[in-house]
Specification:
The structure is a homodimer. By secondary structure, chain A is mainly alpha-helical. Chain A has helices at residues 5-13, 16-25, 32-36, 43-55, 75-85, 88-111; strands at residues 59-61, 70-72. Chain A is elongated. The first copy, chain A, is built from six helices and two strands; from the N terminus they run H-H-H-H-E-E-H-H. The N and C termini of chain A lie far apart (55 Å). The longest helix of chain A has 24 residues, at 88-111. Chains A and B meet through helix 1, helix 2, helix 5 and helix 6 of A and helix 1, helix 2, helix 5 and helix 6 of B.
């Protein structure tokens, strides 16, 4: 897998536990210990996920406190949003067509 | 890695060649042969990428023609957009704060 930044972001997001960690951090910073609590995963297991998120730039860890809180970095998520927004027209178009199609089906039903 | 659908989508997007294939298909359907042309990759190499995208539901292949054209499926991209949009407030907030901070710095510069 290529090591470009957007690929690293997508790879980091390809795991439900890592996405849940980000959802937790969106509400405020937390220690790895606090992050581990709601999950049925060992502390080393959570640490591994945190490291993947950190390498992808989605988390930064403060050095100011001994418990080194994790904080969400939103910039890579903004890049994901701007990448995917290029396709917006496409899915809106498809849903428009689906609507049209369903409309036609309903019209036909009325006639029969 | 978990096999949930959103994870499969993110994993499929974590490669620049696969994202380039989607960008090509956004302009219209294409055969695997046509998809391979702009890339410095063998046909089996492209086929492998197409299979990953197909398993993630990002591509569907028609059975109507012998050349079996690939077509983009936008629905998983819509799911990515709605997932990432939950974080929009966060990065907008951060940029607002940055703006505020820069504004304050400029004010201070004026005073000195």
């Amino acid at each position: 897998m290529s090591r470009d930044r957007l690929s690293a972001t997508f790879a980091a997001l390809a795991d439900p536990t890592r996405r849940a960690i980000l959802a937790r951090l969106a509400r405020g910073e937390a220690s790895v210990m606090e992050l581990a609590k709601p999950f049925d995963i060992t502390l080393p297991g959570i640490s591994k996920h945190v490291k993947v998120l950190q390498r992808a730039g989605l988390i930064e860890r403060s050095r100011r406190a001994q418990w080194r809180p994790c904080r969400l970095r939103a910039a890579p998520l903004k890049d994901v949003a701007s990448w995917v927004s290029r396709y917006r027209e496409l899915w809106e178009l498809r849903f428009d067509r689906l609507d049209e199609h369903l409309g036609e089906l309903k019209e036909r039903e009325k006639k029969h």
